[in-house]
Amino acid sequence: MKNQLQFYKDIHISELKRKSEIDNSINFPTTLLTLLLGGGFYLFRKENIDFTNGNILSYLIILGGIFFLLSIISAIIFLSRMYLNRFRKYKYLPCSLDLMNRENELYHHFFNFYKETKVKNPKESAIKDADDEFQKNLLNYYIEFGTHNQLVNDGRIKDFYWSRKILILAIIFLAITALLTLLN
Fold first, then answer.
1. How far apart are alpha carbons 100 and 130 in whole angstroms?
2. How confident is the model over 124-163, as pLDDT tens digits?
3. Where, by residue number, does the polypeptide cross the bilayer (predicted)?
4. How many domains does the chain have?
């Protein structure tokens, strides 16, 4: 039981560390997004684009701008979901006082039970059984919370992956649109 408890405790702790690593990984995409927005605003200024002649390049520039804008909005949505934990909360162990109260509650339950059933050494039996039951409770906490946190982290990683892919698309759309603007 002790090895099993330690195993699930390690999983729970590793998912909380993974949460911090995911939180720290948002800096680069945010910086890239800011630069892309700045580049987009610079590229789509009135003096850079002449839409009065109505040639095919003007329409391609507009189309490129629309695709760029859609990709930026999509990237913002995925980065927001990632940053806000996919709108889900992480689960943590109860505070130390609650855990201690639970342990005392288990002890008193078993002590009263063994006292009523007239078991020899009710105190020792109650301590042993309360400890065993408390270890089971902890194991259940670690399994439940570790699983929940892992699912949240996996979803956040998927959102991060998609936001990076979409940001690469935004770079491509911006570059193509910039080339078309130069040709116009």
1. 12
2. 888 999 999 999 999 999 999 999 999 999 999 999 999 9
3. 26-44, 56-79, 166-183
4. 1
DSSP 46: G
pTM (global) more than 0.85: no
Range of the domain at 52: 2-183
Q: How many CA atoms lie within 13 A of 58 on its CB side?
A: 8
Dig out the tokens for 25 from the structure: 């990984």
Cβ atoms < 10 Å from Cβ of 59? 12
Which pair of tokens denotes residue 50? 């002449």
